[in-house]
Each structure stands twice: as C-alpha cells, then as structure tokens.
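Quality-control log, excerpt.
Job 1 of 2 completed; input and output follow.
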Amino acid sequence: MSFLEKIKNHENQQRQSQRSQTAAAAIASTTSGTAKKKGGFKVEFGPSKKDILNFTNQLAVMIRAGISLQDSLESIGSQMEKEKFRTVVLDLKARIEGGQSFSQALAEHPDVFTNLYINMIAAAEISGSMSSMLQQLVEYLDQEADTKNQVISAMVYPIIIAVMAVTCVTFLLTFVLPRFLTVFAGKEHLLPAPTKIIMAMSMGMRNYWFIIFPAIAGAIMGFWYFTNKTPMGKYWWDKTKLKLPLLKSLCRSLYITRSLHTMGVLTNAGVPILDTLSITAHIAGNMLFENMWKGIFEQVRQGKKIAPSMEQYGLMPGNVVQMLQSGEESGTLGDVLRDISDFYARELKTVIKTVTSMIEPIMIVLMGVLVGFIAMSIILPIFKMSSVVS
C-alpha cells in the first residue's frame, strides 16, 4: 500500500469516527450535567475576531493545498477548543454536504460571519478563486485587528495615568488632609481660599462618599448609555469626536482607512458596487460616515458617480475625492481604493504616535497640577500662620 493510500484510508477512518461522534452527540447531551460536574463549570463565549482570523487562515492554507472544502472544515472543526465555534464549523460542513453553497451556509450564522465575509465568499464562488479570496480575507481581518490594537494601545497609557491621578487625589483628600484639620481648627478665618476649597472637598468625600461614588458611577454609565444606545447621543458623540483637537485627526484617519480599505477589498473581489457601498456603510464605525455611505448608495442606485456624491458631504479630503473620480473614469477604482487605504493606514500609524506623544505630557502636567494644588493648599496656611505669629 502506497503512502498516499495510507493517508486516504486514515482520513476515511477519521471521517467515520467524526460521524460516530456526531451521532452520539444527542446521547451525550443527556449526560452533560454529570459531565459538567466532573469537569468543572466552564463559561464559554462565542468566537472572537481572532478566532475568525485563525479559522480563515487555516482554511486558506488547506484549500490552497488542494484539500476539499468539506474535509478542510471537518479537520479544522475537530481541532477547535471552543465548543460553540466547533459546532458552527461542523454545521457549515453539514450544510455544504446537504447541497448549500459555502456562502449560503455562512449566511446561516450572521452573528459569527459578517456581510463582508459572506459577500466575498459568494464572489469567490462565482469567479472560482476561493483560495485567493480567503487569503484576501486573512489580510483584511489581520489589518483590521492591527488597526484596532494600535488604537487600544494608544489609549492604555492615558487611562493608566488618569486612574493614578484619581487614586492619588482621593487618597490625599480622604487620608492625608484630615490629619491637618486639627492643626487648622479654630483658625478657619486665616485660611486662604484654596485651602478652604480643599477642606470642603475632603469633608464632603469623607461624609458623603456613599452618595458621591455611586453618583460618579451612575454619571459614567449614563454617559456610556447615552452615547452608545441612543441615536441622538451616538450621533452627538460621533460628531464630537471629529471636532475634538486631539481625537479629530485620529478618528478621521481611522474611519477613512476602514471605509476605503473595506470598499477596495470588496471592489477587487468583484462584489457589486451597491452591495459594496451597503457593507461599507455598515462597518463605518461613525454615524456621520455611515450616513454619507448610505447617501452615496442611494445616489449611485439612481445612476450617479461615487466621487461627486461623496464631495457634497465634506467628510473626505479633496484629494481623495479627486483620486476616486479618476479611478471611476479610468476603470481602476479598485486599485485606487487600495492605494488610498494603504496610504491612510500608514498615516494612521503616524497619527497614533503623534497623539500618544502629545497625550502623555498633557496627562502628566494635569496630574502634577492637581497634586501641586493640594500640596499648596496645605503649605500656604502654614506659612500664613507662621507670619502672623512672628
């Protein structure tokens, strides 16, 4: 028996074993309570974007190696640690064997696979370029994850400094300042205004902490709910982010990179332009950009060009609109979109470094001002009382 025949027999045995395991799943589910007690309680969430990226990367490699789609899905699913994602992948295999296309099977799981993902796979099925399309999806998902990580890393340091500042001020007001109150007792008329303010804040935090801290937490949760769950609040916050001095350049570069990169990938994949615009609006990440892409969608559906429709919104730089117009006229819109998105991806990295380098000293100065104000409020009355005594 040749080596290839041994491999095929081994694969057949694996498939038979998998079918047996699937048939026994219903029986095993009746004893899941006992199994959970033996194995311990386990909380499992749905597949993350990193899981989707790893799945797509493995699938691209296996398809490029000549392995069939069903066998690839079975092999990947059997090796997954997350039970929920393994169930999804094996369900994809079962649906494909039942006669559905890969894109139709993916569409049955909209909470896992995005419209962009499904449409690119559908375009690959029409063009017969599944391997290259999966590789494009890997590159797209990888760049999206890299962009998200850059933005998150840029916000980590300011958040740490802010938490340290709040902790330090709270410690000074609740534990350090009360020790000086006995020194200043009976001499309140001699205290300067900064000291009186700090003393009032200290007494308020010590006497009414059970009101102040829940009020602060409630205000933060209320702001989050207003800016994330209500259309008016979300629109206001998205508009504000495009006007704030430090966030303006960062957010604008992020939204332009994400929109044009998505549009370029879909256009080069052969997805119809109306579907491309609809998906781009969905992933824009900002209501102003989302409304812009939806407006362009309506105008393109009426027979108009993208560039003139985009120009009236004023969200895209003029040179971007001009390049898109030249791409439409020359029939190279996909290449132009790819070049613009690559440029703004590099621009985004530069903006993140610039904003981070500006935020760090600003946060340090603010923290120094707060601590210095508290220290001055303590030292000033001491000097004032010593001068009165002398």
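Job 2 of 2 completed; input and output follow.
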Amino acid sequence: MPISPNQCRAARGLFAMSRQELAHASGVSLRTISSFEDASDRLPTAANLAAIQTALQRLGVVFHDAGVEWSPPFSETQTRVILALQVRNGPGMMSSSELFKKTDCSRADLEFLAQLQILTGIDGYPTLTAIGLHMPGLLRDHESREQARKVFSATINYTVRLDDRTVFHAPTAAVFRIEEDGTLSTLFDTLVPQGQRADVIAGAREALRLYRERDPRIVGNFVWR
C-alpha cells in the first residue's frame, strides 16, 4: 500500500532527515517530495512514490496502518560499526583500518552504510552523518521494544485449559481455542494491541507446545484420553 504524506514526514522524523536528504536517497526531486508532504493536489507518480518509500524502507522504516516504526536493516557487524562510531571527535575517532580490527567489518559493510547516508569518510576516518547519529538511539529503543515484546508474550503469561480446550493470555485476556488438528483459532483478542497480535499468537502456540511436552494426556492431534 502506498505511503501517506503523514507517514513520509513521520519516517523522516525518525532520523531528523531533511527533505533534501530524502531527495538524494530516493532520486526524487525535492519539489516532488515537498509537494507530496504538503498534501497538495499534485501527487507523485507511482514510480516516484515507490522510490520514496523504498529509500525510507532501506533505512529500516516499517510502514503500517497505525503509522511507522523502525527495525534495524543492518547486519550484526554493521551494527557494531555504528555503535563504535558514536564518538565522532577527539581520541575516540578511528581510522578505517582500526575500525576493521575493532568491529571485524569489511569495506563492503562501510560502503553499504555510506550508501544509506549513515556514515561518511570511509577512506580515512569514518564518522556518522547527521542521519547516522540517530541510529544508536534507535537501536537501543528497538532492543527495549523487543525485550518488552518477549516479556509480553512469554509462556508464563499463558494458561492452557484442558476442560474447554483453550489457551488464555493473562495480560490481554485473549482466548484461543485448540482445534482438533492442533491449530489455534481466536475466540477473543479485542484487547490485544494491533502491533502485538502476531507475538501473542506465537506465544500461545509456544505455550501449547510446551504444555503438550509436559502433559501425557495429550497425544497425537490433541485427542484427550
């Protein structure tokens, strides 16, 4: 689904990315981007809109109905590079060769980050760009969200009920029915946040799998004896 002007502005805001920087990253003119974000009657062509969206997605932006969020598009090595370059002045600066040794990165890793406008100076003393300086904070926020999601959907939050063949999720009061073939169907999930439904369902499946391993009454495709 094409992104909206609000989503475009919100995505840029994640990195304090200017319209000019987005124009450079997407290959779309500054005038077109400005016109689109200002919600004028002149909409970008489908190709230009796709280019804008792709440029933002390459930086890790995830678009959904509720707005935007960020997920790291980097490898573990590239993440180490970004974190190592948080200090860009003084004795903390490293040459490319020092960075290679410290992070075990390759030149291809640096070139990838440079293409995303995250760092510059890869042939001398690499430093994070204005966009890149926002990445360490985004990485920390993402890690915190992931940890919260894991806790939210941890199996300890579920109760498997054999009497009515359901799995109950305490934090959201979500209820899933265990079907005869062992799959789960949703009975109630109104209170589950939209962005966490997949996690809650995955947690229910895992809770049920662990319960099966512990309870000998469940055999085959969930036939009770």
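Post-run check on job 2. The mean pLDDT is 88.
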